[in-house]
Amino acid sequence: MAIGSAVLVLAFVVFTIANPTYASSVYNSAQSFIVTNFSWYYIGLMSFMLFFSVWLIFSRYGNVRLGKDTDRPEFGFFSWFSMLFGAGIGIGILFWSIAEPINHFQSNPFITVAQEQTPEAAQVAMRIAIFHWGLHGWALFSVIGMALAYFSYRKGLPLSIRSCLYPLFGERIYGPIGHAADLLAVFGTVFGIATSLGLGAQQINAGLAYLFGIKVSLGIQVGLIALLSVLATLSVLSGLKKGIRILSELNMQMTIVMLALFVIFGPTIYILGSIFNNLGDYISHVVQLGLWVDTTPKSQWQGWWTIFYWGWWIAWSPFCGIFIARISKGRTIREFVLGVLLAPTLLAALWITIFGDSAMYLQLFGGGGIVQAVNKDTTTALFKTIELLGNGEIITLLMAGLCTLMLITYFVTSADSATLVICTLLSMGDEHPRARYRIFWGIAVGAVAAALLIAGGLKALQTASIVAALPFSVIVILAVIGLCKSLKAEFYEESVNVLRERAQKATEDVQAVSAPSK
After folding, report:
1. pTM of the entire predicted model
2. 345-370 as b/e, with b when 16 or more CB fall inside 10 Å?
3. What is the pLDDT of residues 158-200, one digit of tens each?
């Protein structure tokens, strides 16, 4: 399977680079077909995952430990949260935290033309952005990650997607069925991470252009991908507890500092008020947004936004699921789902509010300029916002430099985590795959990201996620069915054992009472 997947990925890279125009048309046709015919499916699947994860929290299965009953968590909460957030969405949220709300601020299906670029539009824009980075996506990650940890650490199966199918197919998961499941997971991971790395390379280029005047170009971006992929490969070679953990904690520390700088040197009172407004607004609309399907025949908004995000989350789910499972042994199902569902959602909402509402304030009540910057070049939105905050050259350069450094470290963290997961999948769940696998896939992931940039930039990156998600979504559904079946069987077995113990004890008590006294 390892050789076959490598050949297919290399074939994709060669096909894309050899004829970028034709490749772009093929990818766009596939994306158009999926958006037209399967939007309802993506919407329904993601909403189901949220309802299912909430049910798990309150169900009788919540106390089941992801491992032996005596196992306890390997990592403390800060390390655990830092790794799952950094691997999950760190680089993507840096790219979109300002650009996305500003796009929705100008136009979206939930406001009228008269409301565009008004305070009302700003509130709706923040609601939509938080929705795309909130509970629905993390619910998917929590379910897949929890299922993988359950089957691996509690049932003794390989840390691999195929293990989730064991209750349905038994030993056949070690044959073609299991190979197909893991292969779809590899492709989902490769294209999901390539999307993030492509976005990251574009914005790193923008940051270097702002700081040092380096030209913004496709060649520079491909070079950045190559260089940072090498760094990511070195990180993954050092292992989970060294390179990946240390970089993830560094990312989280820099994130806290960056958010604090925005609050202190930005519109402080406006941001603090917006935190509560945005959380309340999101919570009151999350179910409605999660079930909304745009039935307008020629509308493209939902396809380019919500369906892109749901495709991205689904494509990322094998990667993040395995990675989160790998760092979550010993936690209970309730603790795991609550942690993965709530903590990253709260940080994402806080992040988008602080960055996004700083830009909104400048656009609505300052001198403006953010909308023009986003429309001209999405990658410059973050740095233009920092500049327009007007805190002097030193503070501006400090904030822009820190954001660029965060983009680089989040890039490396995402790439090395994805490489480790791909190698784990192709090694039948081996948590310490061979070094040569890590080197090859570290380079291959970067090559796919570069190929997608060459094929059409942002549009090709979005298309890749949407298309890669469709086949793997079938595995997601089967994994949920397998999990439910296994949990039910485990509780049935425990109930039978308890009844047997009670019956045996009752028999012993009766025998003790009826025995003749000496």
Report:
1. 0.89
2. bebbbbbbbbbbbbbbbbbbebeeeb
3. 989 999 999 999 999 999 999 889 988 888 888 877 878 888 8
